Amino acid sequence: MENYKSNYDKFPATSINDGMLISGWDNILDELVDKPDELVVKTGNNIICVECYHGVYGDELINNLKRIPHALFIDSDDYFKPEEEIRKMTQNFMKDDVLFGYLSNLKMEDYLDEARVAELKKQIASSEKTGNIIVFGYGSTLIADPDILIYADMPRWEIQQRMRRSEVTGMGVDNHQDPFSIQFKRGYFIDWPVLDNHKKRLYSRVDYWLDTVKDTPKMIDRDTFFRGIEKTANSPFRVVPFFDPAPWGGQWMKEVCGLDKSVKNYGWCFDCVPEENSLLFDVRGEIFEMPSINLIFLKSREILGDPVEARFGDSFPIRFDLLDTMGGGNLSLQVHPTTQYARDSFGLPYTQDESYYLVDAKEDAHVYLGLKNGIDKDEMIADLERANNNPGVIFDDEKYINILPAKKHDHFLIPAGTIHCSGRNAVVLEISATPNLFTFKLWDWNRLGLDGKPRPINLERGKKVIRWERDADFAEKELVNQFVETSSGDGWVDERTGLHKTEFIETRRQTFTKQVRHTTGDSVNVLTLLEGREIIVESPTNAFEPFIVHYAEAFIIPAHIKEYTITPYGESEGKKCITIKASVRF
Fold this sequence. Notes:
With 586 residues, the chain is α+β, with helices and mostly antiparallel strands. It has 17 helices and 31 strands. It folds into two domains: 14-230, Rossmann fold (3-Layer(aba) Sandwich); 242-278 and 311-477, Jelly Rolls. A seven-stranded mixed beta sheet has the order 2-8-7-6-3-5-4. It has a six-stranded antiparallel beta sheet with strand order 9-10-13-20-15-18, with no helix packed on it. The longest helix has 21 residues, at 180-200.
């Protein structure tokens, strides 16, 4: 890849040519204070509520919002239950585990001190005619009924960066000095579900949306927000990829994705994880960033499709990410929980079934998949325990684990309960069900994490979910390169490549030199360009604008689009291209 010229788009955005975007605090406050329309603050006695998502910098928001003329400023944090009580209320969901908790069923109302809020409401009622009242923070709309509602949102990926830098606290608790894994656990199992459910009740009421992800804040109005949502939901789209280094990370993505070469490595490219990715709106040349999950919450039926929404609700069930070990090392030897274990232990409705598609590989690339035939499982667990508990001891992976050579365009299926990991010198497209936390590490090669500390090993959980019958014979028969040609035509071939019959995701590979017609089949489609510099996605009825996709980019086709075509484009015109498409199997 030394002379590779990257055309990978790291900041895909939906263009909105006639929307409103205001940049910078001075201009934002001018809009709120001076604009002579129905939302005038200066000339009225308004209640202004500013709801926010986890991870915003509260002090920055408060300091600037206080510049609006007001008679009363209320921080909802001051009306939360005491931290000790919130910790007690959430303890059953946190569990005594470094990584894993249980999905919360708490509501925003559970965090507020009911008696103190009732007294505050009386004070607000008596102050309404004396000037503006500003209520800031989580649950502000439960304290007062706003004349103006502003929502300061935050994507989960940015929250995680702020957690790592100890810059934010949990909801109602000051945990910023906790290890990242503990902060993330509280967010994933408790704070984010509570805030998501609360936000769903507010979409139709929000007058302005605030983006404070970067240094310069941006604000759009309700009309611009919904224009962006509608346009994105009615066309192919991409969410904003994010990249992360890893103890085993490689060098391939630096070249292909045009990343910072001074960084030691990149292990992950999360190119389609709508729960965590951002969505960008390009409003007349200015970029507005927000969580892409807003789109799924608001347009779940259109994007997922009726049958998929009926099964998964507004949870986006397919995840694409790239794993780069080119010039790096093996991933941890791991296993994912079975569905029943995920339900019983974590409160999740489904688990992380997945597959590895080899996007690129060196000659010595390999994949660990299943067990060797005839091993003694008790002996293997004893050897894993011995190696994990004694730093000088090495686990003999070749004695127990089925190790397979891996080449470009191989596809390995990994239903939950199957021991697996990608080896060094490969680039894997991981196609999986959405839950993204539930990896039980069994062995990590005596390797330290990027923080210089051993990464958590989950052998006690892992040994409870290993499917011991999934050995080399099983892998060869059911998990390796299960390619079946389904159809072909002039300049194209369609192949079914999986996933395994126990998994709900269907994958199809299309190899083509000419235009290929696709149907969504009443399911959201997620695709990646595996070969070729660029392709163009078009509507046979001109229902959406032509959409350009570059090598290694993942993109989403909403289910309700029904029909679309993909054609080699630009530098790839007339040349062989390959895509892989995932959908939900019915």
